[in-house]
Design goal:
Layout (H helix, E strand, L loop, with lengths): L1 H24 L2 E6 L8 H10 L4 E7 L4 E6 L6 H10 L5 E2 L2
Antiparallel strand pairs: 1-3, 1-4, 2-3
Length: 97
Amino acid sequence: MNRNLIFSALMLLGALLTPFLASAAETKTVTLDVPGMTCKFCPITIRKALEKVPGVIDAKSDYETKSATVTFDPDKTNIEALTKATENAGYPSVLKK
């Protein structure tokens, strides 16, 4: 009886966690060149603009390298939406090659 209950609980837990585990494997991380950064406050504006894009999981920007690193769900957004977000914030960007 206890063995069946434990097995059922584990199966339920697995079913509940599967969507989260699957989506974590499907993320994409890119680096954008953002040459228009002119001060140490620019990365804050860029990060906040990127975080507003639906599907963005994490966004970091760096003044020293004039770049932004973005982790996102490619089923919900794309690179064009990311570069558009930085452009709309006043900082045009391109995918780093």
